[in-house]
Amino acid sequence: MNRLAVEALYDTFSYLMGRLDGGARGVDLADAVRMLKRARQFRPKSWSAMESKMLDALSAALEGPEREAAASILEEVVLEPVYACTILAPDGTVHLVYQGTRNNEWLDNGVALSGLPQANVYHTYDGQGAVVSTVTRSGDYASKQQAEALNYLERAVALHPGATLVASGHSKGGNKAFFAAFRASKPVTALGYDAQGFSPEALAQLRREVPDFQERLKRITRFASENDFVNPLGLPPVEKQTFFAAPASQDNLIAAHFPDSVFTPTGALEHRTRQGPPGAFSARVSAWLMGRTLRLRALITQGTMELAQRLAGGSRGYPTGRMALGLFLALGPLVLMLLFTRSGIRALPPAVRTLRHVLSKPAGIGVLLLGVVLLAPVLLLAVLSALIGEILQLFG
Questions:
Q1: How many Cβ atoms sit within 10 Å of the Cβ of residue 284?
Q2: Quick one: CA torsion of 262, 267, 272, 273, rounded to 10 degrees?
Q3: Positive or negative CA dihedral for 50, 56, 57, 59?
Q4: Splitting the chain (396 residues) into consecutive groups of 10 residues, what average pLDDT does each group show?
Q5: Residue 184 gets which letter from DSSP?
């Protein structure tokens, strides 16, 4: 089995596991996929195009190049308080697979990247998976979901003594896997697919408080779609990363972050390649953001993630005024870097192609014409935003 392909399959499955309603415990992955297909056949209109595409990619891989992984056993699906599942691989390895961002977890992403200390609750468990003790840790540079990811892993450690554990996940799920692997009571392998990094404060705390930090770094693997724009966010725990081609993302950057983007129609992993322009531009934006003062960075990360959370239909967890200020302060540097830096200019063509892909052709032309008309006002706002941001940085 291809190690990275199997983890990408597990990560893709994690986005569909909620549709099993907890009724697939103990079945193998092949049967779980068949159950999902029956569910789609029964209520096809309730399935999004993205979900159907992920399911088809899973099915192709398990029937083709990664057929050995079809025998993996789905031991458990947990949807609260952390979104994860436990999969027992054919070789006996226990895989803890964390799902990416859910509707009400966007602001949690902003908190994790903000560098603001939190108060988080951590548990220890007995051999039956029951909570033995609880401690609240204040001054913790981790988000609530990162803490819950560690709790889920520690429970797995207690339930599977002596077993080899692997933590993995896509996007936010990969970030959870990284955090849990660093903090776990035993060494754990971690793989992050399109996974974002940490705030400078969080990474510094991990380096300072994890005694065998350097050894645990050796157990971490990062891989991503060539045009993914999420994995460059924050500071990565390890710099080296493997990129895989994602042909569909050439004309649709949204597809670049879908977990099935690196699979061919026959279910094989696409060839290895270099990071594409969107990812390079995102890395530049992230480097700028991580270098801001805590006050400015917190406004931007939480403001932008609150907007994403509201667009996704999540609850409001951050004041509207602060959200608007954070978005405004992000506007200037983002626009200026997009229009006047090499990485930004290289990222513009795929961004325009994505716009044309998402919108119908007449609407796309109209939006582009409107963009030309509004370019001067937008540039003025961008310059004003950048100036205000620099003033806040100076007095931050």
A1: 19
A2: -40
A3: positive
A4: 93 94 81 95 92 96 95 93 96 97 93 96 96 96 98 97 96 98 96 98 97 96 96 95 91 90 94 96 96 94 93 88 89 88 92 71 52 56 69 65
A5: -
| Position 341, amino acid | T
For residue 28, the cross-strand partners are 73
Burial of 360 (0-12, 13-18, 19+ CB in 10 A): exposed
Q: Which amino acid is at 388?
A: I
Look-up of token digits 């803890």? 96
What's the CA gap between 291 and 61, in Å, rounded? 41
CB 74 within 8 A of CB 28: yes
Please report the pLDDT score of residue 375 as a whole number.
54
Fold topology of 3-275: Rossmann fold (3.40.50)
Is there a contact between 241 and 223 (Cβ–Cβ < 8 Å)? yes
Q: CA 188 to CA 228: how far, in whole Å?
A: 26
Render 64-107 in DSSP notation, one character per residue: TTTGGGGG-EEEEEE-SSS-EEEEE-TTS-EEEEE----TT-HH
3-state class (DSSP) for residue 192: strand
All residues at 6 or more sequence positions from 374 whose CB lies less than 8 Å from its CB, including other chains: none
Cα-based distances in Å from 187 to 113, 215, 258:
25, 9, 29
Rounded Cα distance between 260 and 246, Å, is 9
Task: Record the pTM.
Answer: 0.92
CB 180 within 8 A of CB 190: yes
Residue ranges, comma separated, of all CATH 3.40.50 domains in the chain are 3-275
pLDDT at site 352: 78
Helix segments in the chain, DSSP class H: 3-14, 29-42, 49-63, 106-114, 144-159, 172-183, 200-209, 213-217, 277-290, 294-311, 320-340, 342-358, 361-394
Residues 143, 101: Cα–Cα separation, whole Å: 13
Write phi, then psi, for 95 (nearest 5 degrees): -105, 125
Consecutive H or E run containing 119: strand 118-125
CA gap 117, 138 in Å, rounded: 7
For residue 313, give the 3-state DSSP assignment: coil
